[in-house]
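Checklist before submission:
- one chain only
- standard amino acids only
- sequence pasted in full

Submission:
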Amino acid sequence: MDTSVAKLICGPDADSMYGRNEEDPGLCPICKTRIEMIPNPNYRVRIKGRDFQNTYDGFYIVSDRFKQFCEQNGYSNLLFTPTKTKGFYTLLSQNIYKTSCEKGITRSSLNNCCNHYSHVYTLDRFYIRDKDFIQEKDDFIARTEFMYGDNSHKRYELIIGNATFAKMKEHGLKVQYLADVCSMEYYLEHEVEFIEKREETKRFLEEQLRKIEEYERAHRWDFLINLPRNIIKGILSLFKKPEPEIVYRFGKARPMDKVTLKNMQRYPIWMMEYVETDSYEDNWTKPFLDTCNVVESMGEVDILMKEEEREIHVSATLDARRMRLTGICRWNATTRDWEAVNPVTEESARQWKLKAVPLINGEENVTFAYNEEEKVFKGGK
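Returned file contents:
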């Protein structure tokens, strides 16, 4: 019997749907346990190069490309609620895929105020299809009947057919496989193995904890041995000339979707800035005013790039240490907006030779090319 009858999917983490100053209407007002998924119409997507991502508080964010994929394949009963960022939506499936409430589920803390559990978990990262539930097709997008997780971070798990998962991979949609859904028959047939595996994992963790505690007891006086050496190191550090700290000047922060090509041509390096306003805690970005040189100590920054042969302007997030680009967007002169580009599925984009507008580690015109092996744009020598 095949182990998997369906799959759970997830994506990279995204910022919470609701900021600290916002009231989440989907939470119980008394115990703050999630009882409903209500999207925030003011939510802005920070990283636009992703087709599928999930927020820390349990919502699924999808791109217009993901939405079009669902429409082309005829997946029905899917709610796409537009976010504040053009081309991105909150996804909620109204199709229910029933999982077992008896086997493989751990629940605790039933709240009398809302009649919802604060904590709901599965065992062994396995979800078990309800014995009375029948799913005729292997190509579907659905959700669990109830939410999993903790308190305000509970969410409906997104379940798709094995054929759907294969279609998404073929289409170039980057979705992550999280767990299998197995049939009740399979679970009952292997229940003893599941229990033994669980007990084995528990024994292993208990043994590791015992070893750590023994080591701590046996070495609790070791700091006295290292004391002279640490004192000498401390004295020597006084003779070292401290490296001068680089202080940059930044421009006024603004929402990411308000940064235009003209802004980036004037200041080609931008850094993420978290701004908390009265109405929304959002991810903004701010320009470096006094440097046009990206160095490793800056971390990840957004920079302007050019594809000179095709006369295309591109913005991308640069990791100067690893010399890799993510979150690639192309400037659309007609709509005067940045469009997300996925080089995995857009063959023409894989031919681009992207030249950095600012210096990178002191070098001019550093060029980035698509690496077929790693499926990412890489630069350097």
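Reviewer check: The first strand starts at residue 6 and ends at 10.
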